[in-house]
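Journal club prep — side note

Before the paper discussion, L.F. wants everyone to see what a predicted structure for a comparable chain looks like in token form. Sequence:
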Amino acid sequence: MPLDRNQLIGKEAILLLLQDKDQLPERLRQLNWKFCKGKVGAMDGKKVVAAVETAAKNQGIVKPDLYRETHALYHAILEAVSGVTRGSNQIGTLLRTVGLQFVIVRGNPYQDKAEGEWLAVVLYGTIGAPVKGLEHEAIGLGINHI
């Protein structure tokens, strides 16, 4: 079965991240998808991964004791970080710092529910030299099946 073009998980994650804080993510609730938002600033890529992973576990997006869920999350995070860093996942070692917002969404974007659930992680914010004003916007999206 093909993707359901009315419920693309990456698109929904990006829209959730970029919408105004006052807007409720009613669409995701109607789809019965899980989601959470957070922020992280760091010069260390491990801190970005840890912040997203911790939020996903604390908000019940993934079950910490199920390897396949945390493994899927890890790969979605790395893919999103790769987008923000333009393929070089190093941050502090290259004298770069990031200030990011993130969203994690879990749901089934397929018409056939037997396809199972997927995770989308989107990171949006700034990356640049560790000097205020010497950064630029960046966005990254990672999607992985559970």
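L.F.'s comment for the group: The domain at 9-145 is CATH 3.40.1510.10 (Hut operon positive regulatory protein HutP). Keep this in mind when we get to the figures.
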